[in-house]
Amino acid sequence: MAMGIAASEENRWEDAKSAFQSVLNKIPDHADAMWRLGMAMFFTGEADPAIDLIELSLGRDTDNASAHNALGFVFRTQDEFALAESHFRQAAALTPDDADVLFNLGVVLLRRQNFADARQVLEKAKTLAPKDSDIHLNLGAALRKNGEDDEAEIVFRRAIALDGRNGDAYRELAILLWEQDQFSEAYSASINALANDKDNTATQQIHGVILFDLNELQQAVPIFENILKDDPYNLKAVLYLGRCQMALGNVDRAIHAFERARESEPNNAVVFRYLREAYAMMRPAWLTGMIGDSKRNNAYQTAIDRIVTTDDVVLDLGGSTGSGLLPMMAARAGAQKVFTCESSQPISEMTRRIIAVNGFNEKITVLSKPSKFLELKKDLNVPASVIISDILDVTLVGGGVLPILRYASKYLTQDGCKFIPAGATLFGQLLEWPNERALIPINEMNGFDIGEFDVLRNPYAYHQFHPSYEEHQLLSEPFVLAEIDFAHIPDAPVRSKKTMTASKSGVGHAVAVWFDLHFDEDETFTTTSSLSRNRWYQTAHMLAQVLPVQSGQDFELVLGFNDFHLIIETT
Predict the structure, then answer these.
(1) Which residues are CB-contacts of 181 (< 8 A; sequence separation ≥ 6)?
(2) How many Å apart are CA 493 and CA 499, to the nearest integer?
(3) What angle do CA 25, 26, 28 make, to 5 degrees?
(4) Which of 351, 324, 335, 332 is nearest to 387 (CA)?
């Protein structure tokens, strides 16, 4: 027996097994040797035979506290917490002053969320073993779960004082401080926890969470990525990784993380919410309204049906590509092949799924790159005979459509390529708009000089203008601001001085702007009405200087456009 006990104390479990087996060979009913052999077998990977042997020992001697304690330990490691509690309680009843037994019982009570009893048992264990750091650690956990945070903090700090290498105590202190929004102190505690147990997943996780709350996102990302290497579907880690990436503006990576979370928990409402928020960041708020604008959609459909033939290779340059709507219209119209581009990987994958659901995956190729980087032969095996574009903002040019069309026309199309839309006419009208003009420039407000604030105002920005609702006066008849042929985009800027005649007297504050989009010779879509459900509406562009005019007299403006802005200036 002595040899077996000595080997057990030194964790020489094979030697312990041999020694205890020798005792049993001589004395088969030796209860003490039975449970000790059972423990040696457990530590060499024979859990089920170990349980059988310890239970056999207790059948010989039901009042053996050590055997009950041993069997409780085995059941605890097997996550059989109810059975473990039963045996620890029997051991505690037999040896009420054994701190080790009480500690084991307290740990199991914590796992079973019986925090009140755990607190009571661990308090007694602490009295019996006042210098045991692990007893203090688990007592602190019980106190925290009971809502006794101040007492818990004291006990955690005592555990650390007793053993400065107790990484679990540092971690639990960090969690407690984090829950109290004491982020700086929580950070210090988590750093010490990592220093003592850098491979502990729970320690890494709370450290990453604290970094997230401190807005140290670049540091938090590798923490969560490291956790996910070993535990790819750790829900908390993957959600925090996604939230970090979303806050950093890496929306593609955020979506990838949230999609991973959805794989493991497809019905989790929190995962679904974060995933939808991330996808929403991929597209501006107006996109849904634009996709749902039946007038716009029907105008594209009519032109596509009229223009696209079975011989055509169609290139859709994006804008609303994520929905796959326009390329599917072209495929349905009979195009030989359709290419569409989407730079965002998650959105391009979604587009492929939508196209596949509608049965066009053989005819439509989704290119996961911006249209301005497309290359003939590398991305398109043949030049396009039809270009579809929907990169148009409320000013027509602000979405960057002109340089994209210029590039496509030069490098990606065959001679005689058809463009949908074919072009646009921009219109303007001199506008008196005193209420809005009062803010330009920003000078005095409520008796205070806040003129320096005007530097934050973008003088080139447009304003939404809804004629039906705005207090205004139109001082001229509509005039053509610019005409643009999408098949022949001129080099920017294009500007010229134009003379118009005032139809009313007043002070010109801005120019109201709208455009007619010419899909072909017969189909035109106008943005004069703001009642249609789309992102296109009239805009107003403030003049740098006010322009007084008299009815019947001429006035001059410099009008035109560059690649991204309209040009509207006084002379």
Answers:
(1) none
(2) 19
(3) 65
(4) 335
Rounded-to-integer distance, Cα 122 and Cα 512, Å: 77
CA distances from 352 to 251, 264, 336, 360, 400 (A): 19, 23, 18, 9, 25
Which structure tokens are listed for 267?
A: 């019905």
Q: Across the strands, what pairs with 556?
A: 499
The model's pTM: 0.67
Long-range contacts, 97-100 (Cβ 8 Å, 24+): 97/128, 98/65, 98/69, 98/128, 99/125, 99/128, 99/129, 99/132, 99/135, 100/69
Mean pLDDT of 237-249: 95
Domains and CATH numbers, the chain: 2-248 (1.25.40.10), 291-420 (3.40.50.150), 423-570 (2.70.160.11)
Q: Considering only CA atoms, which of 142, 145, 202 is closest in space to residue 168? A: 202
For 188-194, the CB contacts below 8 A with 24+ separation are 192/160, 192/167, 193/167, 193/168, 194/167
| Ranges assigned E (strand) in 354-412 | 364-367, 384-388
Question: CA 436 to CA 454: how far, in whole Å?
Answer: 14
Q: Are residues 229 and 210 in contact, defined by beta-carbon separation less than 8 angstroms?
A: no
Burial class (CB in 10 A: 0-12, 13-18, 19+), 499: exposed
pLDDT digits (tens, 9 = 90+) for 163-208: 999 999 999 999 999 999 999 999 999 999 999 999 999 999 999 9
What is the H or E stretch that residue 185 is in? helix 183-196
What is the rounded average pLDDT of the residues 79-93? 97
Longest dimension (CA), the chain: 126
Query: For residue 451, what pLDDT band results from cuts at 50, 70 and 90?
Result: confident
Could you give the CA distance from residue 61 to residue 54 in angstroms, rounded to a whole number?
10
Crossing angle (nearest 10°) for helices 13-26 and 31-42: 150
Give 306's contacts (C-beta < 8 A, 6+ positions apart): 520, 522, 523
Helix (H) or strand (E) holding 93: helix 81-94
Q: Which long-range contacts (CB under 8 A, 24 or more apart) does 148-153 make?
A: 149/176, 149/179, 149/180, 152/176, 153/177
DSSP 519: S
Residue type, 5: I
- Main-chain phi, psi angles of 311, to 5 degrees: -95, -5
212-248 as b/e: b if 16+ CB within 10 A: beeeebeebbebbeebbeeeeebebbbbbbbbbbbee
Q: What does the angle CA 308 – CA 356 – CA 384 come to, to the nearest 5 degrees?
A: 30
Phi-psi region of 355 (alpha: psi -120 to 50; beta: other; left: phi over 0): alpha
Judged against a pLDDT cut of 80, whether residue 318 lies above it is answered with no
Instruction: Give the integer Cα–Cα distance in Å for 202 and 134.
Output: 17
Query: Please, what is the end-to-end C-alpha distance for the chain in angstroms?
Result: 108
Distance CA 33, CA 40 (A): 10
For 448, phi and psi rounded to 5 degrees? -115, 145
Cis peptide bond prior to 49, omega within 30° of 0: no
CB atoms within 10 A of CB 553: 9
